[in-house]
Amino acid sequence: MDHFTYHGGVLCAEGVKLPELAAQVGTPFYCYSTATLERHYRVFDEAFAGIPHKICYAVKSNPNLAVIATLAGCGAGADVVSEGEIRRALAAGVAPGDIVFSGVGKTRDEMAYALAQKIFQFNVESLPELEALNEVAGSLGTTAPIAVRVNPDVDAGTHAKISTGSKHNKFGIDITEAREVYARAAKMPHITVQGVSMHIGSQLTQLAPFERAFTRLVEFVATLRADGHRITTLDVGGGLGIPYGRETPPTPLDYAEVVKKVTKGVDCTLVFEPGRMIVGNAGILVTRVIYVKENAGRRFAIVDAAMNDLMRPAMYDAYHEIVTVQESTKAAAVRYDIVGPVCESSDIFAEQRELPELKAGDLIAFRTAGAYGAAMSSMYNSRLLIPEVMVRDNVFAICRPRTSYEAMLAAENLPEWQ
Asked: How far, in Å, are 8, 87, 103, 120 from residue 106 at the CA level?
């Protein structure tokens, strides 16, 4: 469920009419709904009521400060993968003790910064990383709380580019080898072992892969405890899918039932790292039709958003529902290729999509664009980064303004010989 609905024939974000918003901020722009963010967080949190748990929002899915701050106000922590994301989480009001630092390539400088902030946990992904963390913590006269991210070799059944739980992926340590890594960690003077971590992929629409992976994880916890390790946290990652089109992913309650069944009696604080599930349906991308043209009987709607603004269709062949901002009383009867102005053949949002007849100047919206939309945007073709707007009830705020050409050029310098 989201809060982007038609009122009086006009698509609105909560109580704000999108044509009025477009007139004030220009197109294209991202729009996020506070009510949707808060509802999605609450539904996920309530699914685990009664058991010790910590929800650490995956900042990589949407690092906008207003988004993070909204979720922090609900009680969320943060799952981060860089120093920049740590700084964003802190700036948005996330407590350091609610931050989990994931990622396969943490640098020593990033480790030192995270240790100085006294974050909750490092999810260690390799023995060399563990050794480096021990050295950095020692140089600072402190200890690092860790979980080792184990790779259970479970096929997530999702897109190959967002699957992370197979032994062929770069993430984590093979679960058959992780026992030795824990033995090494226990002997390191500046490491405190406190948990086990796992994340098998993103946009999962079936529960079976979760159940297989969590079962292996719980069995591994028993092995570690038999070896004498004190395991108090179980980080099961994120990955729960959302409906972009015809998918019918499990609900948070369905997911929670599997988690509770498999982890019953494990006596750990469960750590979750949802991203897409929280923010995906809470955002849309609004764009304006520039031209409509026809080539060899194929009709193209050329819009002012492009692949640099929303990369998912070009990178993952991802589907986004596309709707007109002005509600049409006629059935969708015209097939369009919805394309952007970037000089790439891959700059296509949708092919042969049925929509009401479009004309230059019409506004359309890409639904379910809150996750990995603005987060993956770039200035390719020297296109300006577009605004991000947050709506609450009938008011809005520009949370990231459109960049200017002056700022774009000022960010670079010519060599002195030029």
From this structure: 51, 15, 6, 16
Residues 231, 136, single domain; the answer is: yes
53-91 burial string, b = 16+ CB within 10 Å, else e?
A: bbbbbbbbbbbbbbbbbbbbebebbbbbbbbebbebbbe
Classify residue 76 as left (phi > 0), alpha (psi -120 to 50) or beta.
Answer: beta
- 299 within some domain: yes
> Two tokens at 281?
């349906």
CATH number at residue 182: 3.20.20.10
Q: Please list the alpha-helical segments (H only) found in 48-82.
A: 65-74
CA dihedral 46, 52, 58, 59 (to 10 degrees): 100
Tell me the C-alpha to C-alpha distance, in Å, between residue 138 and each of 144, 145, 182: 9, 13, 18
Domain carrying residue 329: 4-32+280-410
Residues 6+ apart with CB under 8 A from 48: 256, 259, 260, 270, 272
CATH, residue 342 = 2.40.37.10
What tokens does 321 get? Answer: 């529902």
Segment 272-291, tens digit of pLDDT: 999 999 999 999 999 999 99
Q: Identify the CA nearest to 357 among candidates 328, 325, 319, 321.
A: 328
Please write the tens of the pLDDT for every residue from 201-213.
888 989 999 999 9
Q: Is 399 among the residues known to form the active site?
A: no
Handedness of CA 128, 134, 139, 145 (dihedral sign): positive
Sheet with 16-17: strands ordered across: 4-7, 10-13, 16-17
Which one of the listed residues 12, 56, 268, 343 is annotated catalytic?
A: 343
Whether the pTM exceeds 0.70: the reply is: yes
